[in-house]
Amino acid sequence: MNIIAQTPRLLIREFTIDDEHLLLELDADERLTRYVKKRTPQESKQVFKDTLKEYRSQSGLGRWGIFNVADNDFIGVCILNYSESDKNSIELGYRLHLKYWGSGIATELAQALVFYGLNEVGVKEICAVTHPDNAASQRVLSKAGFERHGRAFWYGEDLPLFKVGRAG
User: Fold this and answer.
1) Could you count the other beta carbons within 10 Å of the beta carbon of residue 74?
2) Which of 14, 95, 98, 159 lies at a 20 to 30 A Cα distance from 135?
3) Is position 157 within any domain?
4) How far apart are CA 126 and CA 110, in angstroms?
5) Phi, psi of 145 (to 5 degrees)
6) In the chain, which stretches have pLDDT less than 70?
7) How many domains does the chain divide into?
8) For residue 57, what pLDDT is reported?
9) Does 79 fall in a domain?
10) Looking at the domain assignment, is residue 32 inside a domain?
11) What is the pTM (predicted TM-score) of this model?
12) Alpha carbon distance 78, 73 (integer Å)
């Protein structure tokens, strides 16, 4: 298991084969997919299988699990990878279990992924989109250093686009 980043509260790591149920449960919770593409259980299983396969590329990019450092509780999933909607853009995304909403975890996570992407992987710019009504995620992105850059037609919708890049 490869650790991507760690903060005082979060361990961001590659999924293992035994973690499949974690992603399936997250994808099945309709409260957590309100602003993102919904998947069938079969689609979720394929995403998980593809995720494990992508780790072999060792690109430094991917989809990872987020775990609580204190008790190893599964917090959610995050990505820092080429966007499905724009293959030239590196996209940051995340979904957290409801009990972690409003605790600053999303901001801590986004900041850690921005640092990792820009400084360890060496990408020049990271993008993110949110549903227009998802003000909480827009605030998270702002706190993590993202700036609004108009709109983008991603995932079949016209969405607010945010970007952050290396200074200088």
Assistant:
1) 18
2) 14
3) no
4) 11
5) 100, 0
6) 1, 30-37, 168
7) 1
8) 87
9) yes
10) yes
11) 0.92
12) 15
- Partners of residue 126 on adjacent β-strands: 164
Residue 53 lies inside a defined structural domain of this protein: yes
Q: What is the CA radius of gyration of the chain?
A: 15
Task: Output phi, psi for 70, to 5 deg.
Answer: -65, -40
Q: What's the pLDDT at 62?
A: 94
Please give the angle made by the CA atoms of 65, 66 and 67, to the nearest 5 degrees. Answer: 115
Q: pLDDT at position 94, please?
A: 93
CATH number at residue 91: 3.40.630.30
The beta strands (E) that lie in 14-98 are given as 62-68, 74-82, 90-96
For the chain, how long is the longest CA-to-CA vector? 44
DSSP string, 122-141: --SEEEEE--TT-HHHHHHH
d(CA 96, CA 108): 12
Axis-axis angle for helices 41-54, 20-28 (nearest 10): 140
> Residue 89: what pLDDT?
93
Q: How far apart are CA 125 and CA 135, in angstroms?
A: 22
- 109 near 128, Cβ under 8 Å? no
State the pLDDT at residue 31. 62
Tokens representing residue 141 in the block: 């992105």
User: Quick check: helix, strand or coil at residue 94?
Assistant: strand
Find how far residue 117's CA is from the centre of its chain: 12
